[in-house]
Amino acid sequence: MVASTSELRTLFASLDGNADGRISAAELGVCMRATLGEDIPAAEAEALWRRWTRTATGCWCITPASLGRMLGKLGNERAVGECRAMICRFDLDGDGVLSFDEFKIMMSA
Length: 109
Description:
Blueprint: H1 5-15, H2 25-36, H3 42-56, H4 64-73, H5 80-88, H6 100-108
Helix pairs in contact: 2-3, 4-5
């Protein structure tokens, strides 16, 4: 069964304990502790987080490259530098990508 967008948002929000739009290694550790019923070493949580974020990049945020691909599919190709500049206008935390909340702000502007 495929999860709906609202189900995915609810899941993400439950993992994002401080509501900053990102799931940190510490928050992943809390989730694993709740799921497995035991503590996992911080280093193991960090390793899982790094592995997960490496494969999940673009799923929870918009990168300059993913923005460029999307615009290209819409027939409005842009260079990565141009996409980086577009993201920079709405990148409130300065991490170089748009979180879901930053994307909502961009869409309402």
